Amino acid sequence: MLPDGRRKVVIDSGFSASQMGTTEDFSTFTFGKDFAGGSGATGFQITPRGEALVAVKVTNNSGPGTLRRSTGFNPDTMDATSWATVLNASKNGAHIDGRRDLTPWSFAPLASPAAGAGYVAEYDGNLAWESLNDGATWAPIFDLQIVRPGANHVHAVAYDRYDDRVWGSVGDTSFAGIYYCNREDIDGLNTSWTLLPGSNSAAWQVTTIVPMPAAVVFLSDATNSGVFRAPRAGFRAYRPLTVAVGLPGTGLIGAHAFQAAEDQPAYLTFYQSGSGQTPRIISTTDGEHFATVYTDSSTVASGRPGVHSHRRP
User: Fold this and answer.
1) CA atoms 3, 7, 12, 17: torsion sign
2) 44, 110, 111: which is closest to 78 by C-alpha?
3) Is 204 helix (H, G, I), strand (E, B) or coil?
4) Are strands 206-211 and 215-220 parallel, antiparallel or unpaired?
5) What is the model's pTM?
6) Which is nearest to 139 in space by CA: 118, 125, 165, 154?
7) What would the pLDDT profile of 67-105 be if each residue is shown by its tens digit?
8) Closest alpha carbon to 207 in 223, 219, 216
9) Which of 46, 139, 159, 162 has the greatest CB tally within 10 Å of its CB?
10) Which residues does residue 267 pair with via DSSP β-bridges, in sequence order?
11) CA-based angle 78:21:305, to the nearest 5?
12) Kind and range of the H or E element at 147?
């Protein structure tokens, strides 16, 4: 959804091109910038100062994913005066996954202590990154093999405006963990990250991070999936990690979260990875109260269908 609250962002993504567009009614489309050349777009976000960030993955994993930033972004044309590659992932196949790594919690609001700073992570890679200039340049602040040697990959990163902290999560299985650091203590790859007590277990394998007023909320692709939360206990203090919403069976993966504004609900989506599961959307307004607002009408036999991402006004 663009900031005007009417137009939805769509990306026609294929094996050789990814063309951005908008629509109000999913009948008439306006298409603009085409990120061609063996690439597929995996994420989109508007920066606090109105530029567009687009995550692009090399579809055959023959190169590292990139993050492209506009100069002079025009939502009427879905293009810009110019585009620049502002970030290259650390290795072939690593990329910015917009479902968990380029979200409404990637940038600090202009009214928050961090005033527009940005944070993204690379899925299937080792690094998380910080920008201090509206996404124009990026520097690594988290190296998986320094923080948790032997772990498989970074899952997500998010800015927490309530505690002025940055959160990160890694996977998989016995190497899973949830980490945080104080934003003012960030010092490149020398940054000291603290493990959230009890989170270094496959039972808490977190994919997506959603800081809310009453708790930091986490989506999961653990064996027993669900919505988890670390309740706040004052500034930069937390009560023990707990299950907020347990989901039945195995194979449901928390994929994406979206919140249009701070006074609007956050929507948490789950898709199916195993079999016999029903994809669903769960909402919360504060990180304490949760409601299932959509459940698919039938289970899925195989594959990975279901709700992967969404935008709404």
Assistant:
1) negative
2) 44
3) helix
4) antiparallel
5) 0.91
6) 118
7) 999 999 999 999 999 999 999 999 999 999 888 899 999
8) 219
9) 159
10) 258, 283
11) 140
12) helix 144-147
